[in-house]
């Protein structure tokens, strides 16, 4: 009887872990560039830099010089990830990965320890 309970417990735990992994995988869906393209604002405390995520060629527009002061390099392109957005420099090197906090809001901690938040513009 004890073997039966042990086997049943293992099967149950296996199913439970499988369901959890499936739920986690389904929550990390890669958004398309079209879903993220548009007007955004990069915030650090009370300062704001307007940015445009451009769908074609994943270019970055707006006040990229303002953003470079916080990020340490000038972002020129972007790429969606399942859990956020990569901002890249002109050479295509990732300079900041903004983590998704909620729909329309992403954040990153800079090298200086400040939190920078990217929000979809109203």
UniProtKB/TrEMBL annotation:
GO terms for cellular component: periplasmic space. PROSITE patterns: TAT. Residues 1-23 form the signal peptide. Residues 31-120 form the Alkaline proteinase inhibitor/ Outer membrane lipoprotein Omp19 domain. Keywords: Metalloenzyme inhibitor, Metalloprotease inhibitor, Periplasm, Protease inhibitor, Signal. The keyword Glycosyltransferase does not apply. InterPro entries: Inh, Inh/Omp19, Protease_inh_B-barrel_dom, TAT_signal. One of its GO terms (molecular function) is metalloendopeptidase inhibitor activity. It is found in: Periplasm. Belongs to the protease inhibitor I38 family. This is AprI/Inh family metalloprotease inhibitor.
């Amino acid at each position: 009887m004890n073997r039966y309970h042990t086997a049943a417990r293992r099967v149950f735990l296996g199913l439970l872990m499988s369901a959890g992994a499936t739920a986690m995988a389904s929550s990390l869906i890669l958004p398309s560039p079209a879903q993220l393209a548009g007007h955004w604002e990069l915030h650090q405390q009370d300062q704001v830099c307007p940015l445009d995520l451009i769908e074609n060629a994943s270019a970055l527009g707006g006040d990229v010089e303002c953003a470079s002061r916080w990020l340490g390099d000038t972002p020129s392109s972007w790429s969606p990830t399942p859990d956020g957005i990569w901002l890249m420099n002109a050479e295509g090197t990732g300079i900041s990965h903004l983590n998704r906090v909620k729909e329309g809001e992403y954040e990153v901690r800079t090298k200086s320890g400040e939190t920078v938040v990217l929000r979809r513009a109203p």
